[in-house]
Automatic annotation (TrEMBL):
Keywords of the record: Carbohydrate metabolism, Disulfide bond, Glycosidase, Hydrolase, Polysaccharide degradation
Name of the protein in its database record: chitinase
Active site (catalytic residues): 122
CDD domains in the record: chitinase_GH19
Domain Glycoside hydrolase family 19 catalytic: 205-215
Reaction catalyzed: Random endo-hydrolysis of N-acetyl-beta-D-glucosaminide (1->4)-beta-linkages in chitin and chitodextrins
GO biological process, one term: polysaccharide catabolic process
Amino acid sequence: MCTTSSSATYHPYIGLATMAAAASPSLLSSSAFFLVALSCLLFPLAAEAQYGAPSPAASIATEAIYNSLFLHKDDNACPARGFYPYSAFVEATRRFPRFGGAGSPDTRKREIAAFLAQISHETTGGWATAPDGPYSWGLCFKEEISPQSNYCDSSNTRWPCYPGKSYHGRGPIQLSWNYNYGPAGMALGFDGLRNPEVVANNSVVAFQTALWFWMTPQQPKPSCHDVMVGRYRPTAADVAANRTAGFGLVTNIINGGLECGIAGDSRVNDRIGYYGRYTQIFGVGVGPNVDCANQRPFS
């Protein structure tokens, strides 16, 4: 019988044939076997026809799982409704085949859960008494509301700000600052300094910027990907700062300057809450060091 690499999925023909065999092995006739074999061929082909060849990540984070994670992303209450379809996520992951493609099955699921949890916090629309709980409201926003500045670091001459442009948070990871928009655009094929708005206007590009940030080390920070798949090698400075591998270190990479080294920080706890829910749905443990309260931020 056909299986998937992530989890078993009920298909009508397979289910009927299996139930018949359980009632009486003799009932598993050649016709039933044919139906099983046919379903093994047709269901993957149907998915591929709709979304194209799946990436490693999309093979694990199926559309059904994606929809179960983001229960309210298309509610009227969410400003980003309609902006984060599963098809955009799938297309974006094809550009980063190492994402969700390294390590054991559990490691791959844990990395995907960590990424989706972090972008959920960055775009959350949840609150303590929200329907289905506060951790069912990821991907509710696509752009920072009422930014306090234009996020231009004028001292960064390598990625100079373009007059009149704002580099506030946009997309799933809330990409911010000219020194992130510039290299992200160069890597992905758009002008991040002259046209940063594309991150809030193009769903695929939005997901690609989040994955670019996830996969790209920015010294002295390692990549989030390397941390989650066991490739992180702490420097002496990392050891002294107690920057140990785990979900907490990913939080440190993303926003440690504001959130880490603080006991009981509500923002960190929100990230952990999403991560806990998502790892449960993927059927894996959270792993070590989910918090960053005892880590010093990167300088």
